[in-house]
Amino acid sequence: MPSHEFRPGRGVAGLVMLTLAGGYAADAAGAWEAPWAFFVPVYVGGLWLAATVTWVAYRIRRRRVARKASTESVAAPPSSSGSQAIR
Fold first, then answer.
1. Separation of alpha carbons 34 and 62, rounded Å
2. Are 47 and 13 in contact (CB under 8 A)?
3. What does residue 79 show for φ and ψ, rounded to 5 degrees?
4. Does residue 43 lie in a domain region?
5. Could you give the number of structural domains in the chain?
6. How far, in Å, CA of 76 to CA of 67, rounded?
7. CA–CA distance, 31 with 46 (Å, rounded to integer)
8. Contacts of 2 (CB under 8 A, 6+ apart)
């Protein structure tokens, strides 16, 4: 079974959107009286948090790939310094 790439930023954005939808539903049902200005900072803050989580996950993934590549190379790359005699 093919695995998909883990994207935590999308998960955070989805949770924020579900929270906003729940808030709107509670406000529409009359169970909660929320001012309209409450939802704007939650939306913007949620998108900021999702972007931050995406950036951190990207940095971790790149560091892990670089570390794996450096441990897999057993031979030194060919030298281009010209220290070997040309015949």
1. 42
2. yes
3. -80, 140
4. yes
5. 1
6. 16
7. 23
8. none
Q: Name 9's Cβ contacts closer than 8 Å, sequence gap at least 6.
A: 50, 51, 53, 54, 57
Residue 40, pLDDT score: 92
Q: Residue 80 — very low, low, confident or very high, per pLDDT cuts 50/70/90? A: low
**Closest of 61, 59, 57 to residue 9, by C-alpha:** 57
Q: What is the pTM of this model?
A: 0.66
The whole domain housing 3 covers 1-15+33-70
Tell me the residue type at 70: S
- Does 6 reside within a domain? yes
Give tens-digit pLDDT for 16-68: 999 999 999 999 999 988 888 889 999 999 999 999 999 998 898 888 888 87
Token readout for 39 is 């939802």
